[in-house]
Amino acid sequence: MSFAALRKASLAILLFFLGGHTVGQEKERIWLGQLAPGDRLEIRTAEHVLWLQLIDPQTGLTQMQLSKDGVHFGPAEQVYLLGATAGRHPEGLMVVRMGCIEIGKRLELAVGDDQPQNRRLTSPVRQVQIYRSNLLALP
């Protein structure tokens, strides 16, 4: 078993015992507003694996770690997940479906803050795994 598979299985088991669960169904479109603070997302693009912990679903504020190989991740940084886009259109406009992740579309991210100079596009999203964090309160 590879390290990445072992890590993923360990996280799923840990979340299960702590009261969280994974959403195993693949969906074409995920709306951030349907997620809760603390939920984690593993997003696989054509070039990277992104681990995100959702802080505020309304604004898209997350803590994100980035990996090229799915095993070695960089340090966490504050990122706003703005939404899904097909990229720039020939006329120069970029249409973003705000608060949404779509398979086959790129993600627009704002690193640090949402100023235009801090925005980045990912390669197209291939897969999204959601790890719910709805922990039960202990008495």
Structural commentary:
- With 139 residues, the protein is mainly beta.
- It has one domain (3-132).
- The chain has one helix and eleven strands, in the order αβββββββββββ.
- Strands 1, 3, 4, 5, 6, 7, 9, 10 and 11 form a nine-stranded antiparallel β-sheet that branches. The protein has a two-stranded antiparallel sheet with strand order 2-8.
- Strand 6 (77-88) and strand 7 (94-98) form a beta hairpin.
- The protein is globular and about 40 Å long.
Oligomer: single chain
Mean pLDDT: 81
- Apparent shape: globular
Residues in β-strands, percent:
over 45%
Domain count: 1
Biggest beta-sheet profile? 9 strands, antiparallel
Order of helices and strands: HEEEEEEEEEEE
| Unreliable parts | 11-25
Span from first to last CA? 38 Å
The percent of residues in helical segments reads: 10-25%
Strand tally: 11
Cα gyration radius (Å): 15 Å
How does the helix and strand content classify structurally? mainly beta
Number of helices: 1
